[in-house]
Design a protein that fits this description.
It contains four helices and no strands. By secondary structure, the protein is mainly α.
């Protein structure tokens, strides 16, 4: 399984793990849990793409993307 497949699989698993009612619930930023996870998945994909899908770790890509998206959604600077 290549990096793209792993990132897509991780994203799919994360989205499926959200109960349907919770996926529709909006956060204070107006973003649903499902939208947030899709944004994270896309950002993680671009992190892997940026390095040519060579090396790296899909979990680390996900965590970095999650931090970046959460900071953007909350309007806080990334440290």
């Amino acid at each position: 399984m290549d990096k793209v497949d792993v990132t897509a699989t991780l994203a799919s698993a994360q989205v499926k793990a959200i109960p349907p009612v919770a996926a529709r619930r909006q956060s204070p930023t107006g973003t649903s849990a499902e939208q947030r996870l899709r944004m994270i998945a896309e950002a993680a994909y671009y992190l892997a793409e940026h390095r040519g899908f060579q090396g790296g770790d899909p979990t680390e890509d996900w965590l970095q993307a999650e931090a970046e998206i959460d900071h953007r959604l909350m309007g806080t600077p990334i440290h």
